[in-house]
Model the fold of this input.
Amino acid sequence: MSTLAANGIRIRYDVHGAGPPLVMLHGATSIGREDFGPQIALFSKAFQLYVPDARGHGGTKWDVAGGFRYDWLVDDLAAFVDGIGLQTFHLLGFSMGAMTALQYAVRFGFRLRTLVVIGISPAREPRASVARRLMDPLRADRDDPAWGAVLARRHDEGQGVGAWRTLLPAIAADVAIQPLLSPADLHSIDAPAMVVCGDRDPFVPVGQAWELQRQLPDGRLFVVPDSGHEVTVRRPGLFNEGLAGFYRLTQAAAEARAAKADAAGTASGTGTTTEEGS
Done:
């Protein structure tokens, strides 16, 4: 476990393995080591994985009474990768992390070797309606106390006891108003990309995932059968197989993009600095 001061907060993150850098962004209300447990075990054999906690989640302290916005998460990611010294990297995001990844790719796509987004759509609905219904602390208390216990385990130590009760509605409120990416925005993302969704995902109908993939210049679609939203943990074997295949097929393109970005950074004299501690 490490922490890094970036964008005015202190980001907690884990590092696993060695190899090309792969940043993994978890979903709303979760933490990376739970969303990506089955992936960390496998892909740390081929990549160096960076798995940060989003602000207000896990060990990245943030009082959501001060607000919660997706564009802040993008700024956090930009500062994080600069802080750990990544010029280029692979980026993978799930749900909230996938929206962060998409928005980062629009702004800084030249730094991405590849992009994988799971369980996300640039459309507002049904994401906003599902989030409003599910991210209700009173509903959790009444209908799903076991989930409340999971949220407490994930967040109480780093955020304060019961902080998740404020986090849930803050996330739902942001989903309802966050600016939507346009087709032109999406078409600007030229990194090799894969869009993943479960065939029963309540947040992202398959048609929306297909539409997102269609608007990415080098996009692919992977629909995971017999799965809802959390494909990384519900169908880990199938998902891991598809992800490994994507990385094999795009390896040459990813290496070429990294070399081009590194050469451009060297020519311009730009670089990154590391500010890290435990």
Notes: The radius of gyration is 18 Å.
